[in-house]
């Protein structure tokens, strides 16, 4: 264990994170890149070390966030180094979203309205992917945030899935643009699709139909996937999720998680007081590609931070 770190404050493994990648050299040949899923402040701190520019928080339910100070303390934690930062909300009411945006505006650089989550609990509550069928409501929520947050540089974005009839998706994006949205992230599948191929042609059509930046999302598991997505769509950015869970250094060009990144996670997690379950699960993802089935069984069964660190030292060195 490296010196100077304590395990104290509790945290919960995050649900949704977005991170944008770029370096001065890479910007000349490919767009910014983004990542969602599974991290709060500690994991954002890790990926920022590996060529990420902008991080998104996990999806936060705006109504709960405004109703409870306990929810605010639990769901939104940041620090001065955690910038640029976009706070991602689930909402279905313009006033509630505007209030939530106003609350986090002093501590972030933008808010994102999730209109792409296909999970049943979300759509049953009127959140996520069902909002792509409510373009006027999405427009009104964007307008209300714009009216409430006075900073003109504060970004307001949306993340969507596509319709089977792509004309409806184009209409949604154009309405959002007219309302003042800063950019649109497009997951290239319908709300019903899960593992089907990403519809890159649909993302390109949307990109060609609006004048605001468009971010592509779906099946980005390596830097090669980022570049391929860009070449197919010519978008302004590429979002990744599971790919960064498996390899937080992906945007820096590593094919698998480097040992340096593993030890960086150990340091950062201990510094932030990350609970063992969260700490361990991230390492399970990071080591999956480089471990044998037998090694994974041993590592996955470990039950304490000290046991994990001893295993890492014995197996990989420090």
UniProtKB/TrEMBL annotation:
Signal sequence, renumbered to the chain: none
Active site, per annotation: 117 (proton donor)
Domain DUS-like FMN-binding: 39-291
Positions of FMN binding: 88, 187, 241-242
Enzyme class: oxidoreductase
Pfam family, one: Dus
The protein's Enzyme Commission number: 1.3.1.-
Reaction equations catalysed: 5,6-dihydrouridine(20a) in tRNA + NAD(+) = uridine(20a) in tRNA + NADH + H(+); 5,6-dihydrouridine(20b) in tRNA + NADP(+) = uridine(20b) in tRNA + NADPH + H(+); 5,6-dihydrouridine(20b) in tRNA + NAD(+) = uridine(20b) in tRNA + NADH + H(+); 5,6-dihydrouridine(20a) in tRNA + NADP(+) = uridine(20a) in tRNA + NADPH + H(+)
Keyword Phosphoprotein: no
Required cofactor names: FMN
Recorded GO MF terms: flavin adenine dinucleotide binding; tRNA-dihydrouridine20a synthase activity; tRNA-dihydrouridine20b synthase activity
Keywords: Flavoprotein, FMN, Nucleotide-binding, Oxidoreductase, tRNA processing
UniProt function note: Catalyzes the synthesis of dihydrouridine, a modified base found in the D-loop of most tRNAs.
Protein name: tRNA-dihydrouridine synthase
Source species: Paramormyrops kingsleyae
């Amino acid at each position: 264990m490296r010196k100077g770190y304590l395990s104290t404050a509790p945290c919960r493994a995050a649900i949704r994170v977005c991170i944008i990648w770029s370096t001065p050299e890479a910007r000349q040949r490919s767009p910014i890149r983004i990542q969602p899923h599974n991290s709060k402040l500690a994991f954002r701190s890790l990926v920022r070390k590996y060529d990420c520019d902008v991080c998104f928080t996990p999806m936060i339910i705006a109504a709960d966030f405004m109703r409870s100070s306990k929810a605010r303390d639990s769901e939104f934690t940041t620090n001065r180094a955690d910038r640029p930062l976009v706070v991602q909300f689930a909402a279905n009411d313009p006033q509630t979203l505007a209030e939530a945006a106003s609350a986090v505006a002093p501590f972030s650089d933008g808010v994102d309205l999730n209109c792409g989550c296909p999970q049943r609990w979300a759509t049953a509550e009127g959140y996520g992917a069902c909002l792509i069928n409510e373009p006027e409501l999405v427009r009104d929520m964007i307008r209300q945030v714009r009216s409430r947050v006075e900073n003109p540089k504060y970004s307001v974005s949306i993340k969507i899935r596509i319709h089977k009839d792509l004309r409806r998706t184009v209409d949604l994006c154009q309405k959002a643009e007219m309302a003042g949205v800063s950019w649109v992230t497009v997951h290239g599948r319908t709300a019903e699709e899960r593992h089907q191929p990403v519809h890159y042609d649909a993302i390109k059509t949307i990109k060609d139909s609006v004048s605001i930046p468009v971010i592509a999302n779906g099946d980005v598991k390596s830097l090669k996937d980022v570049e391929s997505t860009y070449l197919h769509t010519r978008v302004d950015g590429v979002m990744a999720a599971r790919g960064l869970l498996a390899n937080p250094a992906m945007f820096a060009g590593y094919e698998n998680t480097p040992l340096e990144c593993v030890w960086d996670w150990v340091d950062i997690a201990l510094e932030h007081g990350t609970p063992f379950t969260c700490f361990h699960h991230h390492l399970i993802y990071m080591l999956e590609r480089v471990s044998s089935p037998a090694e994974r069984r041993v590592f996955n069964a470990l039950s304490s931070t000290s046991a994990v660190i001893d295993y890492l030292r014995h197996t990989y060195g420090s």
